[in-house]
Amino acid sequence: MNLRRQFGGKPDRRAILDLSYAQAVRALDLQERALEQLRTRAGIVLAASSVTASFLGAQTIQRSSGLGVLGGLALVSLAVSICASVYVLLPKSDFVFSLNAPRVYETFYGESADEAQRQLIYWLERYWTQNQEKADVLGQYFFAAALALIAQFVFWSWALAAKIS
To answer: What is this structure's pTM?
Structure first.
């Protein structure tokens, strides 16, 4: 976005502060929504893992005398998928998506509004960065859960196909 073009020349300090603050708040809001969506998808992977094991696993076990290697690998994949999905779904207390109003008041009492807003922009950016590091780890757990679901499906299908043919 070109600020000079948007404001018809050189933007004033107040406009820059307002725009920067709005963008910092928006970034945290979008990050919170992305985390909620990741958790929703993790719940879907968890349910899909359970359904896959219930249907394909039950059919495979019913048609054979034991699990076998493929059945064992499918169960390991099921366990990985469940554990990784549950880790993503568990509440995490160290994410920060809003400011503590009394802390903001106490910190900036006596400061000018411009200076307070300028410092808040940096606070919000720091919170976003810290949150993103944690969200990236959750994304890796989600990816592992999804891969384990695919592996489970392949192993159960392969084991079932071997028993049917």
So the answer is: 0.85
